[in-house]
């Protein structure tokens, strides 16, 4: 799987129309936008997709539509996670995994399991998943940090656990994982602004939010990193610092949907409890996009 999901994966947003229904025409434009912009693979139904607000029928329709629109051009990773282990397993029955490369499964949120609880949760998922599993550690959102020790234990114990999307924000934690992981286990940044330093340490790329809106610059930056041209990558990274920071100023995917609307890819529509970007943030994002030619 390593060659399939190295580089930039785009955590696709879900476009909505004025009635807050899934806008499949805009979704088609988005898939083309990021594919033509240089994305290496697509992540479907991640948290950036506002997946908790989608019905079961909508989730299945989105997966099927993206699979058809993608037409085998890029690998697809499907988000299947939650804080009820049995329900995560049941949700796997909702999908046709034809054309799916792997699943991405976030650590259980809110109920704050122990490290042993996290291990047992992923043990069950690895046993039941029809595809390789990408762990997702994002303590800033879930309320629990999966330690390097637990990640490494899972990576060594279960061959089906193939990678981690690591968004702890700790390069020390990332370093321990990279030092002691199995040879083919992949370490992927879950934070846009940590992609460069993580690849420099030996990571495999990033699953990006910002690459929805700025795919050409972002994907080129990651490709330069993976090629060892950190001087060239750093110049692009510096041009992205302010715009990427602005995208997250009022939460995700609020900022990136605003940017995509400014580009004419989709409407700036979200489902509650998320709301569209404030006028001040919209003006800030528009100004930064102009300043940095995005």
Task: Summarize this structure as a short list of keywords or feature phrases.
single chain; 294 residues; alpha/beta; TIM Barrel; eight-stranded parallel β-sheet; 12 helices; 8 strands; 13% strand; globular
Q: How would you state the average pLDDT, rounded? A: 97
Silhouette: globular
Percent helix among the residues?
A: 40-55%
Rg: 18 Å
Strands of the largest sheet, in order across it?
7-6-5-4-3-2-1-8
Number of helices: 12
Assign the CATH topology: TIM Barrel
CATH class: Alpha Beta
Record field, number of beta strands: 8
Examine the secondary-structure arrangement and name the CATH architecture. Answer: Alpha-Beta Barrel
The unreliable regions are none
How many domains make up the coordinates? Answer: 1
Amino-to-carboxy terminus distance = 32 Å
Q: State the order of secondary-structure elements, H for helix, E for strand.
A: EHEHEHEHEHHEHEHEHHHH
Strand percent estimate: 5-15%
The CATH superfamily bears the name: Aldolase class I
Structural class: alpha/beta
Major sheet: 8 strands, parallel
Can you characterise this structure?
With 294 residues, this protein is of the alpha/beta class. The protein has a single domain (7-227), classed as Aldolase class I (TIM Barrel, Alpha-Beta Barrel). It is built from 12 helices and 8 strands. The chain has helices spanning 24-36, 56-70, 85-91, 115-128, 139-142, 148-157, 171-180, 195-201, 215-226, 230-247, 254-262, 279-291, and strands at residues 7-11, 41-44, 76-79, 100-106, 133-137, 161-166, 186-189, 205-208. Helix 8 packs parallel to helix 9 and helix 9 packs antiparallel against helix 10. The protein is globular. The model has no long low-confidence stretch (mean pLDDT 97).
